[in-house]
Amino acid sequence: MHVLGSEAEMGESSGGSVDDEETEPTGGPTGGPIAPLGRFRAPDDGVGARVGVDLDRPHAALVVGKRGAGKTHTLAVLAEGVAAADALAPVVIDPMGVLDGLAVDGGTVHRRPRVRPDAVPPSAWPALLDLDPAGAVGSLVWRAVAESAGSSVAAAREHVGDADAARATRRAADAHLALAAEWDAFDPDGIGPRALASGTPTVLDCSRLPPAAAGAVCAAVARGLYDARVREAIDRLPWLFVDEAHAFFDGVAGDALATLLTRGRAPGVSLACATQRPAALPAVAVSQADLLVAHRLHSRADIDALAAARPLAVADGLADRLPAGVGEALVVDDVSETAPTVRVRARRTPDRGAGPRASGVRTDEADTVDREGGGREE
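== DNA helicase ==
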């Protein structure tokens, strides 16, 4: 097996198909776990040796591709590999509500994820509520969250009501905090790093949340996992998976995600992002990724953004190397300094992201829909 993220190789038996059952070897080249990714695509469009990702050390991974090219599928395949490793803790930010199948084998799906208000720094609350932090209303919200110790949105609203500020300022600040309360994304007993690092997959389904609230959840989770590992408050090494990552980098979660990219690997926190719009990501999201999985892209702006951030990644031109087939990807690995084309394996867990087809519709009224999958829901 060729192991990405490692300079060593494992033995490989010949033959097989990319659709064969892929099971985790007991240990990678370093003795740690690996995540089976797929197989090399041969020049004759056949399949070659198996390819996996070394999970013994933390990584910053970026999966890109146009809609329908397979990026979310690939993100889920990586999450499956992480879930099979006892020492790792996969946490998934799912903005589209399609990744709950990852929790089928004993994981947890949070249909309405809630975080503690103080998990979002007071300085970030004005931006979260689309306020100018230097303005009267924004600064009052900032102070209210800080001085109420972020215990609850209700406590912050009480502080605003008692503040020595103009009535119009208090009313505006209270209205914005009331909106945050309506999101139903904050709770003094919200999910924290210890629960997230339980070792079983945790899927945070943010599809029912407004974008700002989903960003707050992502920011709280990213910051919480990082701080917990720095303090050595959790033992397992977290992997945070973020689908549609461009939307989160552009909001209140941007700073927390950038911290994981630039400093997360030292305390043992990995970040894996997927996006169909790499041009919308900050340059650091591409340049700091030691593992880049590039599916088909059509936008010249997206291709140019990858090429500009990784000019030495593919010497003969990134655009010419991107595969056209669904589920195929160019994988640029900084550690092994290779850029193979891979056919990503089939998922083992239920795939909710596959688009509906007319051929799959059952019109008999007596039929019932058997929704595969399970996992605990909260």
